[in-house]
Amino acid sequence: MGIKKMQTASFSNEQLAGQRLMVGFDGTTLNSDLRFLIKRLKVGGIILFSRNIETPDQIKHLCNEVQAYARLSKQPPLFIAVDQEGGQVARLKQPFTQFPGNPHMKGEEDAIHFAEVTASELTRVGINMNMAPVLDIAPAQINSIMAQRAFGGDPTWVTRLGMKVIEHLQSNNIIAVAKHFPGIGRTILDSHLDLPTLDDDLSAIEGMDLIPFKAGIRHGVSGVMLSHIFYKNLDPLWPASLSNKIANVLLRKQMGFDGVVLTDDLDMGAIVKHYDIGTAIRRILAAEIDLTLICHKGPNIEVAYNELLHKIMNSADLKRKGIESVQRIMKLKKIYLKHP
Fold it and tell me: Which residues lie below 8 Å from residue 207, measured CB to CB, with a gap of 6+?
């Protein structure tokens, strides 16, 4: 079924739940696991990692098969995402163009070249979303976890280059996702391993970390990814990826972002070592976060789907907010996913 024929008001509860999941999987073909995720769980998107990637032709075939199966299953086309930042984090290896990475960019021309080449190569194989740019600010005087991935430590420089990446990805029909809100450049603990804490208050974060994200919103960035960082002076209870105060009050209401908000991977140590998946999903619903990212095959994906479904079936308020989230998702799909 084409996007133009799909109206959010006609979505089943199962579709309202599934569209809010972006998931990883094992394998390099349209296998039984992927069919289950698309037809049974009705997921909104998938994300590719090295384990899913062999050659450009294989990726193109996989993406085409996945989208064809979604149409056959009467589901909307899927977001197909990848982390292709260049440098340290680049899932697509040669023969895809290899870049030295954000810290090595000398000016706006480098950012434009990266974005245009990357957009062309992603489009050619059927990928429609890039989890980039990194808008974190990594000060030189600390051992930042983002030192090898950020554009640098100056908010003005990060903003200049980041905006060019957003502009030239999206003008070439690739969804850009700015990350990791509200900024993880001043942390030294890897959230893949455990839950980092940042002590700064809002005024300090506004004067540094939020500057590129505010610019990204003004430049129409399509997506914003939340970090798994505990900003105890912004929310004394929950990390950003589970926080209503950060995802809804700060990002949406105060900063005016009306695009798609997504979590970082819920399989990371910052989450799984501290929260069960049911708690995480309930917090995501409370914070009106649109897309839940679960990057590894396993029971968490189905548990998350069942929790989403149960909550929207048993709360008129959560269903109403869920419809709003799926409307944002579908608006983005209508713009970028050009399927008949």
Answer: none
pLDDT in tens, 200-210: 999 999 999 99
Nearest CA to 208 out of 222, 230, 187, 191 is that of 187
Transcribe 128-187 into DSSP letters. -EE---B-----TTS--TTTTTSS-S-HHHHHHHHHHHHHHHHTTT-EEEEEEET--TT-
Task: Report the residue count for the chain.
Answer: 340
Per the confidence metrics, is the pTM higher than 0.85? Answer: yes
Residue with tokens 């769980």: 41
Question: Annotated active-site positions, please?
Answer: 192, 264
Please answer whether residues 100 and 87 qualify as being in contact, where contact means their C-beta atoms are separated by less than 8 angstroms: yes
Within 13 Å of residue 199, how many CA atoms lie on the same side as its CB? 1
- In the numeric block, the tokens 């979303």 are attached to 129
The residues pairing with 337 across neighbouring beta strands, listed in sequence order, are none
Q: Is the pLDDT of residue 147 over 90?
A: yes
The C-alpha angle with vertex 184 and arms to 308 and 290, in degrees rounded to 5, equals 20
- Give the span between the Cα atoms of 182 and 213, in whole angstroms: 8
Helices 210-218 and 155-170, interaxial angle, to 10°? 30
Tens digits of residue pLDDT in 108-123: 999 999 999 999 999 9
> 245's torsion region: left (phi>0), alpha (psi -120 to 50) or beta?
alpha
State how beta strands 89-90 and 84-86 pair: antiparallel
> Which tokens sit at 174?
């690739």
Give pLDDT tens digits for 22-54.
999 999 999 999 999 999 999 999 999 999 999
For residue 3, pLDDT beyond 80: no
